[in-house]
Design goal:
Blueprint: E1 3-7, E2 11-13, E3 18-25, E4 34-40, E5 47-53, E6 58-60, E7 68-73, E8 78-83, E9 92-99, H1 109-113, E10 118-121, E11 125-130
Parallel strand pairs: 2-11
Antiparallel strand pairs: 1-3, 3-8, 4-5, 4-9, 5-6, 7-8, 9-10, 9-11
Length: 131
């Protein structure tokens, strides 16, 4: 029983910041894993925003490089996404996700960022950025 719950979504003005949190329960110890943030805006395809592997390897979509930062707090079983310099193009439902047993350490983080082996997903938290 693995559960992911996002929080932190809000409505903000362009240029503002938000910190999204994802609390995981029932995940336990895994020798290899990848966790990621995805987003989907109305009429748009799902986009892998950022991903982080257990070895520390990180991926960012070009659209958010330099503005967003993904991190994990293992002690708190939490995944975070710090979002700065937000613009209206960042408006979307944001989902956190985590890989299951089919993920291995040798897999590239880019695979994680397209949802490979993503067995667990949160319900999403809405981010709205006004111009």
């Amino acid at each position: 029983q693995v559960q992911l719950v996002e929080s932190g979504g809000d409505s903000v003005q362009a240029g503002g910041s938000l910190r999204l949190s994802c609390k995981l329960s029932g995940y336990g110890y895994r020798s290899a894993y990848c966790m990621a943030w995805f987003r989907q805006a109305p009429g748009k395809e799902r986009e892998g925003v950022a991903a982080i592997e257990g070895d520390g390897t990180i991926y960012y979509a070009d659209s958010v490089k330099g503005r967003f930062a993904i991190s994990i707090d293992s002690a708190e079983n939490a995944l975070y996404l710090q979002m700065n310099s937000l613009n209206p193009d960042d408006t979307a439902m944001y989902y956190c996700s985590a890989t299951g047993d089919s993920w291995y350490a040798q897999f590239p983080v880019s695979a994680c960022a397209v949802g490979y082996a993503m067995d667990y997903w949160g319900k999403g938290t809405l981010v709205t950025v006004s111009s």
